């Protein structure tokens, strides 16, 4: 009896030990890889079915979608690099996290996503473009670019390394912390990621890795091996590049269209301060139609060659995960840091609240819990990324985060919970900046409508030049006061936003409803401009001018 009891106790002990071992095993929790490309817009991803999908630009990103879920209504809250990345890291809107523009920084104590995942037992790493000024010290490991970084032979600085190298800073060679790597940035960043995965991480722990490409940020310097890619292909053009119809308002065109040559950098010659033909080296003596077409074709080919480099490197990550046997226990998330204008409305760059700029790609693969090939129309935004990754890692979303956990949508084939948000907020703070010259604005997007308020001033109060004065200040126009205006788009009838219906009697009720909803949402998420009384005054003066057309 004693011998039998000993055997039983021994078996129980082994079972308990095995159970304990399982609890500590790295595959008990899923690994998470968050892949983000700079300025990669949904129009340039095959699964989103845009005019460019027939070119098959992203077979490997599309594989993530085929094996996971695609979000069709996910939007950024500020379509510019640094603020968007801060929203992703903090789960907070810009006025709460304090990063309003490209000059913003995210100190160690506010690098919340890394702190939360460290606390959950993850080994954390970020490799590639960081762009939040202060080093990402909350991560266990980092190897990141300085600011934008270089496309070729980039310098990256590694946590714990004493390496020094020479970099050009403000036109002068300076000795900086970091190492210079040979090759195109997309390849180099992937090399460094694979080296960390293979040789540097603690394989007894689950990992959280942020893998951040520089590409396809301007000026679209692609790897020379892609020089022939799409060379003889005519790239489909957006109709609104040629006929913008009734998009916009006096805020984007000026009174009597007097600011068309100033607001919103263009593909063709419309904007005399900054247009894509200038960047692409197109002969300025060409007639406008030929100039615009040549600029667009060259722009898109360079952009898509950068995308090709991103997509090919994602395949390399896939191959590693498969060979290591950890693919299906690794959650793969793919996103951009915002959308991007690829000629729509004759615009380049981002910043706008219009769909191509505001909409973000967001694709998640996790075979254990996400149905392959599923899609969702749930309204989401980039403040949701951190809460979602924390929840996927088995944690509780902290109260200080303002975003929503998307896992109920992910795990229920895209269906929205009953209490899901009905609108998402947007705010572009950088009034008339960087020669792209987009007016500051905020607004609300529901599934059916979009309401935008262009409030005409920078958040830094400055002496203003009246918009009736057509004198241009191309070096810096942040003090240039543009007209205040509202825009409203009926997205069900007009998904390409070609007809601003603000002020039309048929939309009077929905306008009032959206203004009230926007006012409530701004209060809810701490976007009340308490520190900017000059903006509050403009809002007070113009917010309830119901149904008075701004045209």
What's the structural blueprint in terms of helices and strands?
Layout: H1 2-24, E1 31-37, H2 59-66, E2 69-71, E3 74-75, H3 81-90, H4 94-97, H5 112-119, E4 123-128, E5 141-145, E6 155-158, E7 164-169, E8 172-177, E9 179-180, H6 185-200, E10 207-212, H7 250-253, H8 276-280, H9 288-324, E11 330-336, E12 341-342, E13 348-349, H10 355-358, E14 362-365, E15 374-376, E16 380-381, H11 385-392, H12 407-410, E17 424-428, E18 441-445, E19 449-454, E20 485-490, H13 508-524, H14 533-542
Parallel strand pairs: 1-10, 1-11, 2-15, 3-16, 4-5, 4-10
Antiparallel strand pairs: 2-14, 5-6, 6-9, 7-8, 11-14, 12-13, 17-18, 18-19, 19-20
Protein described:
This protein has 551 residues and is an alpha/beta fold. It contains 14 helices and 20 strands. The protein has helices at residues 2-24, 59-66, 81-90, 94-97, 112-119, 185-200, 250-253, 276-280, 288-324, 355-358, 385-392, 407-410, 508-524, 533-542; strands at 31-37, 69-71, 74-75, 123-128, 141-145, 155-158, 164-169, 172-177, 179-180, 207-212, 330-336, 341-342, 348-349, 362-365, 374-376, 380-381, 424-428, 441-445, 449-454, 485-490. The strands form 5 sheets. It has a 10-stranded mixed sheet, sandwiched between helices. Strand 7 and strand 8 (172-177) form a beta hairpin. Helix 5 runs parallel beside helix 11 (385-392) and helix 6 (185-200) packs parallel to helix 9 (288-324). The longest helix is centred in the middle third of the chain and has 37 residues, at 288-324. The protein is globular, with a radius of gyration of 25 Å. Residues 1-25, 467-475 and 547-551 have low confidence and may be disordered.
């Amino acid at each position: 009896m004693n011998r039998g009891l000993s055997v039983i106790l021994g078996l129980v002990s082994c079972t308990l030990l095995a159970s304990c071992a399982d609890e500590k095993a790295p595959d008990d929790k899923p690994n998470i890889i968050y892949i983000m490309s700079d300025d990669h817009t949904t129009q340039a991803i095959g699964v989103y079915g845009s005019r460019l999908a027939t070119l098959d630009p992203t077979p490997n990103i599309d594989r993530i979608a085929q094996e996971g879920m695609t979000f069709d209504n996910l939007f950024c809250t500020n379509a510019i690099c640094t603020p968007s990345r801060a929203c992703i890291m903090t789960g907070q809107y810009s006025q709460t996290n304090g990063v309003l523009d490209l000059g913003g920084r995210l100190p160690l104590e506010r690098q919340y996503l890394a702190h939360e995942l460290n606390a959950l037992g993850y080994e954390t790493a970020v490799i590639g473009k960081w762009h939040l000024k202060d080093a990402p010290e909350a991560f266990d490991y980092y190897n990141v670019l300085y600011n934008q970084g270089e496309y070729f032979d980039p310098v990256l600085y590694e946590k714990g390394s004493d390496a020094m190298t020479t970099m050009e800073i403000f036109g002068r060679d300076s000795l900086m912390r970091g190492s210079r790597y040979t090759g195109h940035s997309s390849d180099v960043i992937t090399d460094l990621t694979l080296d960390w995965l293979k040789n540097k991480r603690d394989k007894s722990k689950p990992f959280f890795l942020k893998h951040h490409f520089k590409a396809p940020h301007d000026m679209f310097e692609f790897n020379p091996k892609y020089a022939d890619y799409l060379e003889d292909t005519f790239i489909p053009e957006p109709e609104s590049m040629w006929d913008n119809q009734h998009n916009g308002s006096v805020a984007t065109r000026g009174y009597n269209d007097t600011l068309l040559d100033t607001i919103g950098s263009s593909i063709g010659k419309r904007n005399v301060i900054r247009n894509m033909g200038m960047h692409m080296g197109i002969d300025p003596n060409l007639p406008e139609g030929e100039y615009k077409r040549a600029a667009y074709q060259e722009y898109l080919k360079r952009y898509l060659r950068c995308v090709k480099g991103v997509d090919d490197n994602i395949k390399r990550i896939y191959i590693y995960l498969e060979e290591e046997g950890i693919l299906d226990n690794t959650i793969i998330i793919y996103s951009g840091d915002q959308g991007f204008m690829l000629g729509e409305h004759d615009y380049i760059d981002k910043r706008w609240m219009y769909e191509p700029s505001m909409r973000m790609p967001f694709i998640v693969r996790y075979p254990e819990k996400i149905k392959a090939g599923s899609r969702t129309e749930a309204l989401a935004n980039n403040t949701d990324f951190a809460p979602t990754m924390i929840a996927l890692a088995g944690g509780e979303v902290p109260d200080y985060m303002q975003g929503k956990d998307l896992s109920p949508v992910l795990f229920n084939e895209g269906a929205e919970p009953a209490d899901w948000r009905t609108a998402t907020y947007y705010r572009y703070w950088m009034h008339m900046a960087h020669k792209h010259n987009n007016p500051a604005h905020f607004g609300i997007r529901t599934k059916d409508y979009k309401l935008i308020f262009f409030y005409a001033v920078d958040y830094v109060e400055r002496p203003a030049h009246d918009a009736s004065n057509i004198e241009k200040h191309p070096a810096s126009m942040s003090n240039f006061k543009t007209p205040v205006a509202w825009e409203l788009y009926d997205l069900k009838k007009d998904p390409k936003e070609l007809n601003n219906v603000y002020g039309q009697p048929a939309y009077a009720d929905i306008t009032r409803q959206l203004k009230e909803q926007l006012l409530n949402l701004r209060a809810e998420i701490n976007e009340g401009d308490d520190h900017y009384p000059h903006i509050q005054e403009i809002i007070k003066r113009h917010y309830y001018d119901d149904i008075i057309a701004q045209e």
